[in-house]
Amino acid sequence: MADSTPTARRRFLLKGLGLGVAGAGALVLGWGVLPPRQRLHGSTPLPLEDGAVALNGWLAIRPDGRVVLAMPRSEMGQGVHTALAMLVAEELDVPLASISLMQAPIDKIFGNLAMLADGLPFHPDDQGTLKKLAHWTVIKAARELGVIVTGGSSSIKDGWQPMREAGACARAMLLQAAAAQWQVPAARCRTEAGEVVHPDGRRASYASLARQAAALDPGAPVLKSPKDFKLIGKTTPRTDTPSKTDGSAIFGIDARPPGMLYAALHLPRRLGDTLSSFDAAPVLAMPGVKKVLDLTPALGQRSESCAAVVADTWWRAKQAAAVLPTQWRAGAQSKLSSADIDAQFATLLDTESGHVYHASGEVEGKQAQALREVKAEYSAPFLAHAAMEPVNCTAQVRDGKVHLWASTQAPGIAVDVAARVAGVDAADVTIEVLLLGGGFGRRLEVDMVAQAVAIALQCDGAPVQLIWTREQDTMHDMYRPAARARFAARLDAQGRIASWDNKSVSASITHQYLQRNFGLPGMGPDKTTAEGEFDMPYEIANQRIAHVIADSLVPVGYWRSVGHSHNAFFKESFIDELAHAAGKDSVAFRRAMLVSHPRHLAVLDAAVARAGTAPPGHAHGVALHQSFGSIVAQVAQVALEDGEIRVRRVVCAIDCGIAVNPNIIAQQMESSVLFGLSAALGGEITYKEGRVEQGNFHDYPVLRMGQAPQVETIIIASAAHPEGVGEPGTPPIAPAVANALFVLTGKRLRSLPLRLG
């Protein structure tokens, strides 16, 4: 019998999508021209309580007048639970404080379409038919896949249309209900603060109209014009601040189902080692220890081999797991070193042409040979995510059902992997998505979910909370890929860039992610490897940007800003090198290549103007970068103090389209700068003899409060569609600091992290 499970259907669509984008899937392309499926009504009614009445698949009205909003995105500090609720509150005409959130069910209307569409490898300036057709097809495929995921700085971008439409449709239904009750034209009524109001003074609360409204057809949604916005665009406090301030907020690690046990892992010391045996007896004799388990058979080839200890407290489980006597079989990676990876990258750059993501004009030729050539090579290391909340998951397997409590960015994928490990249907898995103490892409992975379910399977129906140690999190992460980039550019007699040739090398995150989570083989190009290089805005007539995918024994995963995180450093540092070689001011050099990009130019000018002149003993460095649809320019004010790099001030200008909540945008720019600065100044994962050399914050440092610079954010006014905010502030900070250091020292730092010695 054919496999018709949701996971199987996703695999089929992912394969078909690949064919369609490549131009080879006629069937998929034919299907792609049909209208996309609606996103207003779910496949099943919302699971509501307390007499709430659903008006569509997104929201309901309670008898007390509060609005219940189904929230499909995870809150990991980026403020989406506030910003997305603002979209609905705006169109529904209710106070933001009147909205209560419920976890959205696993339903395809909540799938993230924008994140998948942003994975297409087209240049932002490309307005061609192929790009439009590919985008349309991917949007349709994403709607069918219905993957509920929070990432790619896409929550507002994806929710902008369907969540506003949900609010607008509900408002239209309530207007109709009041008009029918009063026997007046609906056009004579208006809404405000959760009520329908007639000019003669009659008022009806949404709560009193909800049941009648639920039976009405709203018609096509009519959205507000931006000129009529009352909430969108206003600086608004975050709704999650009080609970995070008083300690009542519930994160994944705070789950406390009755009768819960705790589990800790015993992971291999070297990459790729497989557990062959262990001696459980001495550990079972320790206080509170309940079980010692080999998880390898249940996890299969997609997860790391390991053992687990279950106890009545996590400390006891951790202490016992640490001393569990084990024997391991060495894997192919057991001798891997960072030097091996560096050598592999150098060889690939020398011998492979790579996939060309963007090309225009003629990079090589007789005329080009006569021009001045500048060459440089840059590198960036593996990086860990280092989220403050340790990796964790709580699972219970009882009576053929699985219940999860998880701080995850991918609840749908978590449900699928739990069902696979437990041997049940996905319909028999429920999940409670709790707050995330940082995600940064690490919680797009579901390895901790598979491990927790594999443990719970053997715990006689008791819920079990699995918690990783900080050392395990650092040494067994899915890392931001290491990368190397090689540049060659030619300058004409006027000091302008005549040609630009860029080839880089790294592992493919997407290939590995599809294999780990969907069982699909990695194939074809991966946009994340070259993003930030091939899609630059600079107007250079002759350019070629290519990337070589390196086979990687090291597990790699999505990290805040993904490929942009290192490619921006490569690209913006080399732009500065060329400006210096041409004898030109670095800002003027950039401005001259942005004649047809007024939005980029405005962002750059705003940051530079606000930054002013660097104080004595300090220097300014500039970087401009577009990622996740948003344009960011940063000016870093840097000094050398007692031989240490100190970043004292960062001016950050952003054009992210319509600014839904300026307060959240400013917070995310500050967060992104500090996150990127931690990586730029100290982030590095290295391998020796198959083992990660870093383990905790003493040797994998994050920025301390005393090291944090003042961050000033400028939000450029825009009427464009909202774009990403959570990640675009991270890529420019490393090159901005490196460029400032060149002004201070005359030394060009081409490797991350930035070190003067």
Q: Can you tell me about this structure?
A:
With 757 residues, this protein is α+β, with helices and mostly antiparallel strands. 33% of the residues lie in helices and 21% in strands. The strands form 7 sheets. It has a 7-stranded mixed β-sheet. A hairpin with a 5-residue loop joins strand 6 (195-197) and strand 7. Helix 1 (6-21) runs antiparallel to helix 5 (129-145) and helix 14 runs parallel beside helix 15 (447-456). The radius of gyration is 27 Å and the shape is globular. It starts with 5 loop residues before the first helix and ends in a 12-residue tail after the last helix.
Count of helical stretches:
23
Taking the alpha carbons of the first and last residues, their distance comes to 64 Å
Low-confidence stretches: 16-27
Shape, please?
A: globular
Helix/strand/pairing category = alpha+beta
Q: How many strands?
A: 27
